[in-house]
Amino acid sequence: MIEILTAAQVDKARATGALVADILQDLRGRSVVGTNLLDLDRRTAEMIRDAGAESCYVDYAPAFGRGPFGHYVCTAVNDAVLHGRPRDQALADGDLLTLDLAVRLDGIAADSAVSFVVGEARPAGSLELIEVTERALEAGIAAARPGARIGDLSHAIGTVLGDAGYPINMQFGGHGIGTTMHQDPHVSNNGRPGRGYKLRPGLLLALEPWVMADTDELVTDDDGWTLRSSTGCLTAHSEHTVAITEDGAEVLTLPSAPASRPSA
């Protein structure tokens, strides 16, 4: 299903996007050396509840997962890149952490992800991985406008990732979003320009470039959810929800303020 939202629904999506962005910023500020992933999950549940929203993840049970996800935020560390199921793990100095969050507020969903390095250490290649996904995301957003084709966005994203020398996995990518979290059209992280669905005002897309440093192959943890690089290499993932407007693409999941560290 491809869903075109009304102006009133897009306005609701702005509120959902702001909530997702602010939760991610709060979690980023709390993600210090020693923080437990389960504590981040509990904080997410608290903030969703306090906002009168609902999680898109806790009861999520697609065919590729093993039963309901059962948690409120994806927490992927180092070689994990997608669907990272929170577990009893304390963050260490230099961990590359990806937080991925989807929430529904007043009937409309938004989805966003951010990758960053915890603490002071900077493992080789970690910042470059993060930066290339952020640039690819910017390129995809810049290509998103009425009349453009999905392939134009995929090509823009894939050009940045490929030119940086990273392999590109085509199994998972961006997607439509609206009253439900995952909708058509699928937005691959590489593709041919001029192909695919023509973008229209009112369409919401979650664009999400992600890469693994030296492979395009994934393996799945025993939890049935967490996807890791097959070689154990570092990974990164950046995502925004955008609304196609008459003028281009409006990013709905920008944070309202920089992340701040929790007080002692």
From TrEMBL:
NCBIfam families: met_pdase_I. Transmembrane segments: none annotated. Substrate binds at residues 83, 182. Residues 14-246 form the Peptidase M24 domain. This is Methionine aminopeptidase. Its cofactor is Co(2+); Zn(2+); Mn(2+); Fe(2+). The gene is map. The keyword Ribosomal protein does not apply. Binds 2 divalent metal cations per subunit. Has a high-affinity and a low affinity metal-binding site. The true nature of the physiological cofactor is under debate. The enzyme is active with cobalt, zinc, manganese or divalent iron ions. Most likely, methionine aminopeptidases function as mononuclear Fe(2+)-metalloproteases under physiological conditions, and the catalytically relevant metal-binding site has been assigned to the histidine-containing high-affinity site. Belongs to the peptidase M24A family. Methionine aminopeptidase type 1 subfamily. Monomer. A divalent metal cation 1 binds at residues 100, 111, 239. It catalyses: Release of N-terminal amino acids, preferentially methionine, from peptides and arylamides. Its EC number is 3.4.11.18.
